[in-house]
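Replying to the earlier thread about multi-chain prediction with a worked example.

Input:
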Amino acid sequence: MITLSDIPARGGTPFTLPMGLFAAVLATAPFWLQWVGLYQYLGVEIAIWILFAMGFNLLFGYTGLHSFGHGAYLGIGAYGFGLFQKSVEVSLWGGLLAAILAATVAGAIVGAFLSHRRGIYYALLTIGFGQVFWFTAMKLHWLTGGEDGLLNIPRPDLVIGSWRISLNDNTAFYWFVAVITAVAVLLMWRVVNAPVGRILQAIRQNETRARFVGYDVWRWKWLAFTVSAAFAGLAGGLFAMAQQSAYPDVMSLHQSGVIVMMVLVGGGLVSFWGPVLGVVLYFIARDVLGGLTEAWLLWYGLIFVIMVMVRPEGLAGLLHTTAQRTAPPAAVPATKPEAV
Amino acid sequence: MTSLVPHLVNGLTLGLLFALIALGFTLIVGVMEVINLAHGSLFTLGAYLALSTIGAGWFAGTPFGIWWLELPMASRYFIGLALGPVLAGIAGMLLELCLRPTYGKAPLYGLLLTFGAAIVVEEAIRLIWGTGERNMPVPQMISGAFLMGGLIFSTYKFYAAGFAIVAILMVWLFLERTPYGAIIKAGAHDSEMVRALGYDLARLRLIVFGFGSALAGIAGMVMAPIWGLRPHLGIDVVIPAFLIIVIGGVGSFWGAVAAAILVGMATGITGAYAPAWSLMSMYILLIAIVGFRARGLLGRRSALEN
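Result:
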């Protein structure tokens, strides 16, 4: 089975074929979404979840730490954004900053508890903490509005110099989200291809060995968790803007499991771009299968189960092996770096 | 102090019921080192199947169904109590067959596969029985309430707690005092050696998974009158189950029982002072115990740590 470490170090140049494709699709989506029968808001949703899923994959795929409670940090970001608008001031950047900050602090605290653990115990503790946050959000009525959540969160205008752009229109909002997602993805690309990324992958392959080589494994695991929570918080802030509300449902174990499913189905374990495929497939499945049958989740779950059974490396892994099979044998070593 | 007594009794019965829920879970984790996230869904499935058995289900309206419904409630109930878990056990065996490709890989894959299976089962339940909440009927002799020391207790809860005690003892006797129990324990300890001795490991795993799932089904049937029956009940169930396993120590039978009673008591006592937060206490307990003692109360080293 191939792994993420098959991606060679190449000084982190982002100008690769998948990056170009990703940028092109992200930049042109509003022009053809309606034409293929979808709608603008779906683009917003997909872009936000791509941001969330890719941040999650820093932890899940690259560092090999399996968090099953990551929805909590998305939720904390959403509440951070909403509470900032409601009780401090209506401000776009202030709100997003508050979202990132809230999730980072929560992630840093939880990460400190988690980072001594490994394997399934790590996963179990993330479930425990995720449930604590979810439960707190449900019960702290005066702060979070309980089960209904915070409603009527405003979408503040984007102000650049003397420009003032309203984001209330979904197309304008899409551009805003797309730019933030693109910048965040570039940032993550830098991180995973920098020496830091190599250290994280070393921890995934063999934690003990990484420690013997001299890395402070605890600190790197903590950092991976905190950074990934920060990205989740940013996604959460955008999510609160998109939904114009923040509610505890996104923090549930179910939602945290769904993000793991997306990343795995897409192939986050073998490719930087895996989560993108996974998120797009999930939302298309939700809308297309959901239009055909009430029980679309049943079919999606079945696809997922079969995928774990026969092809745990996901869609990206499938593309990779197909590319290898169709390429002439001599070209295999040369095309391998470009394949995923 | 008297005001605390009902909460303590409640906590103890809840703890015994948690132990019943965790029983099948700990068996599967101990022998197969698979965290079965579908445990809660099999629990729910068992209860729904029992419900359909009691209410004639798909035979309603046919001569057989009419004859069936004329039988006394109690006998239908006890047949449901047997049939629901058996069918849940068969579903569990199917799940085990699906799990086979993940053996020998990281435990993550087993976790993911059972999570997917949990969603599939839950959606299937929604499709078959509808989304609404259902009530599990209970025979006359174990329903109602009684007075003890000036306090009102529900008869059914006592029946359920007694049932839990019997089930725990039976499983323990099965594991400790029968040859098959010895093979299962040996399989948990060193599966290679069991294979080398000529036992069919694949069949052993299939049976253990089926048995664990049947226990989930029994727990579902017993718990349904207390918690109500809804399709997404599974997730409310699997979380206490695995919390208990982690607190008690993975693979430890009495660790799980002790943890279950601890969690039940903690929930019961918190319920006395802050009812809204009573479920939170189990998560705090988890973090407090596992944060300082990774393997739980009575845990031993297992492959799941790597």
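Chain B touches chain A at residues 35, 37, 98, 101-102, 105, 107-109, 111-113, 115-117, 119-120, 123-124, 126-127, 235, 239, 242-243, 246, 276-277, 279-280, 283-284, 286-287, 290-291, 294, 304-306 (CB under 8 Å).

Feel free to reuse this layout for your own posts.
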